[in-house]
Amino acid sequence: MSDDARLVELFEAASDTFDDKLHQVPADGWHAPTPCTDWDVRDLVNHVVGEHRWVVPLMGGQTIADVGSELDGDLLGDDPMAAWHHATAPSHAAFAAEGAMDSTVHLSYGDERAAAYCEQLVFDNLVHAWDLARGAGVDDELPGDLVDWAIGWATPILPMLTGSGAFGEVVVVPDDADAQTRLLAMVGRRR
What we know:
Layout: H1 3-22, H2 41-59, H3 64-67, H4 80-96, E1 104-107, E2 110-113, H5 114-136, H6 144-154, H7 158-163, H8 179-186
Antiparallel strand pairs: 1-2
């Protein structure tokens, strides 16, 4: 399997993990708090739906300025599940297209190889799957292979991740902590 095909597989697996947690949100759980202190469950889902909706225009060569405010605000409407499904199929297709991972995307901090952009979304979908599970009060166990990948991906860029403000400060955990606990600690979360 090529590196690009493996990355698409990881993207789909992380999205599927988020999807699994999303389908367990109880009817009265949409406004429950999450570990992302500024977001309740609905806000968190809206954020991840937005990330998926950005993929198609960015992979198509558009800039953030080109998209403008089109993807601001509430993207979930009256049917968050439908909004999720309508966002994920096109994002998966955009990354899976022949040669897509070698293209350049124009992100807020500058131009980036599409493969690196995809890696960011794998990581974000995975971490937010845990946030969603915690907020919804459902099983928060993450797939071990994805956790191992995420630790390997994040470790060399951890100062940049924590410095971006997108994640909390690193939490100190025991040396013998399990992989998921270590991953969550890297981004300021306590298991």
